[in-house]
Model the fold of this input.
Amino acid sequence: MPQGSSSPSVRPREHWRSLEQLADTPEARSFLEREFPVGASELPEGIDRRSLVQLLGASLALAGLTGCRKPVENIVPYVTPPEELVPGMPRQYATTMPFGLGGYGLLVESHEGRPTKIEGNELHPATAGSASALMQASILGLYDPDRSTQPLQKAAGAAAPEKKTWADFVAAWKALEGDLVAAGGAGLAVLLPPAASPTLFRIVAALRQRFPGLLLAAWEPVHEGNAIAGAALLAGRPLRPSYDLGAARVVVSLDADLFLGEQDAVANARGFAAGRRLATEKDEMNRLWVVESAFTTTGGMADHRLALPSGRVGAVALALAQALGVPGVAGAGEVPGVPEKWLAALVKDLQANPGRGLVVAGRDQPAAVHALALAINTALGNLGTTVTLREPADVLLPSPADLAALAAALQGGSVSTLVVVGGNPAYDAPADLKLAAALAKVKNVLHLGHAVDETAALAHWHLPEAHFLEAWGDCRSSDGTASVVQPLIEPLFGGKSAIELLGLLATGEDKAGYDLVRETWQTLLAAGDVPGAFDGAFNKVLHDGLLAGSAAPAVTVAPAPLAPEALAGLAAAAATGIELVFRPSSAVHDGRFANLGWLQEMPDAVTKITWGNAALLGVQTAKKLGLANEDGVRLTAGGATVELPAWIVPGQAEDTVVVHLGYGRRAAGRAGTGVGVDVYPLRTSAAPGFVAGATLAKSGGRHPIAQTQDHGAMEGRPIVREASLAEWRHEPHFAAEMVEMPQSEPLWEQHQYDKGPQWGMAIDLNACTGCNACLIACQSENNVPIVGHEQVRRGREMHWLRVDRYFSGTPEQPEMVFQPMPCQQCENAPCEQVCPVAATTHTEDGLNAMVYNRCIGTRYCANNCPYKVRRFNFFNFTKDTPELLKMAANPDVTVRSRGVMEKCTYCVQRIQSARIDAKMAERPLADGDVRTACQQTCPTQAITFGDITDPKSRVNERKQNSRNYVLLAELGNKPRTSYLARIRNPHPELAEG
Amino acid sequence: MRRTHYALALVLLSLSGCARGCTSSRPPIHLNPNMDVQPRYEPQAGSAFFYDGAAMRPPVPGTVARGELRDLVNEAPYWTGKDTAGAFVASVPLEVTDAVRERGRQRYDIYCATCHDKGGDGKGILFERGKVPTPSFHIDRLRQMPDGQIFDTVTNGLGLMPSYRYPIPVADRWAIIVHLRALQARRLERMGGAAPVQAAVPEAAPAAETPSPQVTP
Done:
């Protein structure tokens, strides 16, 4: 029981993991008590189609007898070795991942010419050395065994497509282009995702010049169009806003998932966490106010959160603007669901911090709300400090209007040649446009895509697209910083990039991407005539990963008062029926990552659902409809109906249903096909973000959902510790003092770990947003396998680092805390004491070492681990790994077979590598030489790792923090990993007594 | 009786397996795989995927790795042995310290002494056994050759001498040249001759050399 005898002022908070745990049902209790749930040790019954993934590895045949002899391994050296490359020593290349309307600067580790691990580029403003889960997992896209391997042509009337070559396609295009040029481009249409790329922009301009009658639409299902249109409403022309959360003391999110869903999530999270580092009690802390419908990780970080339907957020923005005295705003009444006191406190907070506040509207909010948010920021003086507006340079802006015009032209039969450059419009285009059907009317559909997906099935020519890790290109991030995308390997399947295809169309010449990019950068760099100057400047850009100083200058705007018509629809409308909210999945985004197994198995940050989506409902809404978790529901909107499992999310706004896009794919490969339910049929172009008037009905079926939230829960003990800022300042050591340590001496002499280096880790719960980037980074670095839907239901997910999510408060208005849980590397490890074969031992530098080939699989260590961080290979999950996926494995880490335990090793391969480097350079290890994968990728730098015997190391600094506490310290196992308690910063007027 | 038959059969079977001393062209029997061969690509491994059967891939031409940036405008002599006009540089563009001299001696003995021998007379072990026609370094032509041209020879090869750009990093190539010059100077001193003036500008640079990385071919 938590004693808390010396901290009566810290309000005790009871944390719960799920509604079942709260209700304390017998099932929930038995699930908690067993380390491996009932049936975990039993063989699966019927193997269903979806188990194909784990069947890739899960072989029930006896091991080894199929090939009794030692396999022959050849030594294959380089014929012409590259200069200064030592086999076994990885190199790093700076490149950029184009995504959305920008790109993320990455540093990709390459082993002997093959990319194996993605990290953030510390020099690039969009990532500053971190990488999100999507960025980390994108390497699997390169090694996707189901990607297209060659061009395919489906002649009219043919049953199946024929395999062709790129040269065949070029010849086919040459046959087409004569007529198109003669017609001035009439009949030619291009559909491509919006992008910010100098080369692509230049080539599209050339294309328009060659074909004046061209119909071009830039569109993708999740885009930034509303934010830019909002800026246009205010400033008269499209401008891109970018945010600096580090400069903000008060951040207000109007339905914006700042830390996971928005384009600049990584930079936002980093800036925000910098404002709540709390190294000492005297430090200032920022405050986050969130108004949202779904419960997002941003809502979890909030100090004050209101759950409202997304349709009502506009009214809140109007009320806020009026209260702040924004010119031209009037007529805002009281908003149902928003307490007067809450809004008043928010207004006060913003007014108390002029120039240091920030109001951000979510991507799906209409342009008027974005305009209001910008107007509020302008009125508060935030423009130039926390919000910067810039001219979009080299940007193909998203335009739903162009897409609608294109669809109309397709329906009307005026398009003879449609070129779809990336994207998957047959799957994700708005349902009312009926694009998939319209494609049948086009004589020539040319598709450039990653895999033979839903759109390729309807195309006459399908061309494999080169992944960004194997192609040349360039990118501008959201603040305009220009960078080059450089390939780390030659295209594995001869794929072509978008610029190469469009370059061929625009000029008739088949030019390599390298030449196209260099052509663009001749003008960008303007290096002068000195021989070698351009090469030198270009090589510097390739080396650094960006062109220094290329950020677009800030634009000062004289804001026009908003037109009353624009604001008319925002006043609170009467609630009619259920509001359906569409959100991109944090795992597969809009569906493009469906075949990346790591992402499918990554638990959704809040719901912890893997391998699929669900209709997320609020507590009372579900109760009203009599729905329990996993019940089937029929959801109707936009003239279509889909059936989904229901899932109850504490804290979600009532009368809303949140569904995640990107699931239910029909042609995504072995991991993505048939996973989840496709909700795009419900999404129309009129209401792509949220739509009122949806209906929900119980369908009577049950759909099993694989989720991880109840696995490994720890009952009744203060696992996450949090307090308010005032409470912490009053009782700085509340966290460590929540538990009474037993007054007893150890029975035997304890091993003294005083000779450096001794490794330790500190995880700041105040910075962790629950984004799961660390989970994927660990999986990538340590060759952690995926297990599939069925095995996740049995609690056998293999993630070495899991992110636990706890709620506190009432189910309708809870708060959320995340806690990453790696192996705690206990000095007195309970697991070491029970291993019958000494397969887990302790190293001199404090690591709990796992010796895979000694393990016989008794699983006693996992049984004894109080943190439940040990994962067992129940099957050989890596047997029958496709050849391509073998390339994604880290050569420095063992790929484990069946029957062995595995767990976090503090990235021992990185520790050893740093030790070797230091030894060869004849210097001692310095703080920062070793960075674990999770630490390196965390966008908020929540994880710190280093030598605890070094008094000046950053990890020691964190451990000296008064918020520091160790989990389950009363057990006496002395973990090396400690946590820093979570602090919330409620507004004094709203703080509870 | 049957038990004895079974036991005898088992013993005979195990003995027939040729426990020791037999040769076989097949790999040994390995009953417990034990993660000895893992589904991952290791350095110098083979690959069933790539056309050349190799898991190691060459870097894509034109790319620049972190830490591998070469400033070919301001530091051309260091990386190529030539100045920006294309003429060989006369002397090593490095600060010559004792560490550099020692490194040069060590690397020379490793890479060069097999043909050129430790004293620089060209009578290394490969000359004796393989009859490679290595010249002695103690001739006027090689004493007068600018350092940059020697760098170029080491990097690109010349005649029967292969290119040494792959085993020897750039810094070590210059260190070796420092050592080579020291060998020449010491021999000259022993023979009592005067140090000749090195040719400042050569007649023509040798043609058909492989281009340095980071420059468009």
